[in-house]
Write a structure and sequence with these properties.
The complex is a heterodimer of chains A (429) and B (324).
Chain A: E1 2-12, E2 17-26, E3 29-33, E4 44-47, E5 52-55, E6 57-59, H1 75-85, E7 87-92, H2 103-116, E8 120-126, H3 139-145, E9 149-151, H4 159-171, E10 175-179, H5 183-186, E11 191-192, H6 195-200, E12 204-205, H7 208-224, E13 228-231, H8 236-247, E14 252-257, H9 258-262, H10 284-296, E15 301-303, H11 331-340, H12 346-353, H13 355-360, E16 376-386, E17 405-415, E18 418-422
Parallel strand pairs in A: 1-4, 1-5, 6-7, 7-8, 8-9, 9-10, 10-13, 11-12, 13-14, 14-15
Antiparallel strand pairs in A: 1-2, 2-3, 5-16, 16-17, 17-18
Helix pairs in contact in A: 2-3, 4-7, 7-8, 8-10, 11-12
Chain B: H1 25-38, E1 56-61, H2 67-78, E2 82-87, H3 96-108, E3 113-118, H4 123-128, E4 136-142, H5 148-162, E5 169-173, H6 180-191, E6 196-200, E7 216-218, H7 221-225, E8 230-233, H8 239-242, H9 249-256, H10 260-263, E9 271-273, H11 286-289, H12 296-314
Parallel strand pairs in B: 1-2, 1-3, 3-4, 5-6, 5-8, 6-7, 8-9
Helix pairs in contact in B: 1-5, 1-12, 2-12, 5-6, 5-12
Classes of the chains: A alpha/beta (429), B alpha/beta (324).
Chain lengths: 429, 324
Amino acid sequence: MTLIIKNGHIIDPANNIDTIQDLYVIAGKIAAIGHPPTDFNAQQVIDATGLIVCPGLVDLCARLREPGYEHKGNIKTETNAAARAGVTTLCCPPDTNPVIDTPAVIEYIQERAQEVGKAKVVVLAALTQELKGQQLSEMHALKNAGCVGVNNASRAVNSAVMRRAMEYAASADLTVFIDANDPALSADGCAHEGVVSVRLGLPCIPETAETIAVARELQLIQLTGARSHFYHLSSARAVQMIARAQYDGYPITADVTTHHLFLTEMDIGYFNSQCNVRPPLRTQRDMEGLRSGLCHGSISAVCSDHQPHDIDAKLAPFPSSEPGISAIESLLPLTLRLVDNNILSRSEAIAKLTHQPATILGLNAGRLDIGNAADICIFDPERYWECSQQNLISFGKNSPFIGWELKGAVTHTLLDGKLVYQLNRAENQ
Amino acid sequence: MIQKNIQLDNQGRLKHLLTLEGLTRQMIIDILDAAESFTSVAGQAVKKVPLLRGKTIVNLFFEDSTRTLTTFELAAKRLSADVLKINVRTSATSKGESLLDMLRNLEAMHCDMFVVRHAESGAAHFIASHVAPHISVINAGDGRHAHPTQALLDMFTIRKHKGEFAPLTVAIVGDIMHSRVARSQIHALTTLGVSEVRVVAPNSLIPTAVNTLGVHVYHDLSEGLHNADVVIMLRLQKERMQGANLPSEHEYFQRYGLIPEKMALAKPNAIVMHPGPINRGVEMSSEVADGPQSVILEQVSNGIAVRMAVMSLVLGRPLEGTMT
């Protein structure tokens, strides 16, 4: 099978490519860029005139809801949504049911994902058994089964267990993914402690729930040398702490979600449960701090933290509605909006969605190296579409961005050179 | 979306009463004026007016209450409405779907108004944004968010004793952090333009950013009461000791309990209020609670007139001359 993507504007930040060129695919792999390989004969042609051709996106955190929460989505529906979003590799955190703490669950997820064939799915295994924060998971066995890191969702782990877990993960050469949250301080909170929570009387989560956890984990990282990634920073102060530690040479990376880059506590308005997320939406100052962390590079990836829900999950008074956003389909257009907002160049924005998150996961993905799998995202940067319940193909329609006009639409997604998504030209114009 | 202020209809009239935030000064005055005209009803031999005859009002209480529930019930009956009381244990309906199911069932019985009390902030907004369009919702207390009718009856009581709001200094003492009453009082007082609203408590009972609501924070009771015209004491829940907000009731009373010597620091004609029920010897001593400056029982009886006013205004039957 041979394929040519013609006349596309290829942006591959990992290889410093940012020009209009043709891209050649042979047998599911990238064969050449610019000049055709010898005796190349295209069986399939994609005309990418006016479109951007970039590596398939890599999403650091997306919940597929399978196993355990199939009423909210499943591997088929959510990898379909991923393909539509231009995401070719996604990482699934361990808070499934049963949790990902045995090789069997990893094998199940990967087999299902391969059967469906819409996106490559990698997983994080639980740091502790059943995420209970007591006994370490069998990290070597889990690594052999294919996990790319370990994580304890945002469940409590005391300092002693965390220390040992980091030591053990470091010797197994596994990255520790950290949700920086002090459970005692966040308790039953559901909104940032500040002007909105005081007005609405919402149980609140102080900024210190994040910064204390960041401080503790940094100390433990220094002690144990564990390579670590900080998931979804939400406060400007945490960004400063991370930047400082990176300057001091700590082996750490961090990401931010699209919703923390575009929404603040104010968006809760009169109890909009679509804005119930963890960590909570914080202040304008925090949003600017996250944007500046992204701009300066201390935050190296943007992720969706995709959490599809059934309708009932959000149909409750704010504190008892379930947190999370069905976010994977708005990942690319919102990240591109940062380009229009002069926060990032287009190439930087794509880097935050491709090879940089891939590096965090330890994967050779998100780059158009010759010989690499032809996982490719092609999008129309000028095409507008409305984020609406009808337009989202994820099972979860829960998004605070419903009603937003988004710029940038994926037109083709290729996985190993095969088309797994193609925009219907008449679709949601 | 539920972003807009759903308690006003598209002509700016009160459709639900969920919070006092966002109501104009004139709207609050209208409610107080309407309540004024209802106070005479209690003195009549037949304590009824036919304003809401044929209307069905459901008191939907997901949290225990005696005073609020009773006064709402009396208010509805004095307006000649049919009243139904549903007491629901919070645990049984903590999930949104069953809450919505219950609402659908009640709607099917052709009710006109829900009076809702719920343990979660935002519950009244949630219900108001999901009921059929012909139904009005009155918030009888949701979590820590709001208790608008309580604050209105407090304003009514203050106005009766003080006349004008503008020159007043009002001190609210106690558990501001967990108090829906305090939040609603603060919105009402700042909207009515009192000269100073003070909150008095240790920092562990003061929510972050409370100053953004337009109040001054005091940690010392004597300073907080100095020259106050109105002193509002809040109820202290026993749970606050477990939650590490306070060390003990004893120490709280020593520092923040209202006793005659402290009360003497306020203006000589100052009044003392409390939303009830009082913990004697915790928030205040009996000398003050039962003393000449206390208007606590008056608050309770004013509650009926204020709730009659709110119900009749919301159901679109304003008394003549009370609406602008």
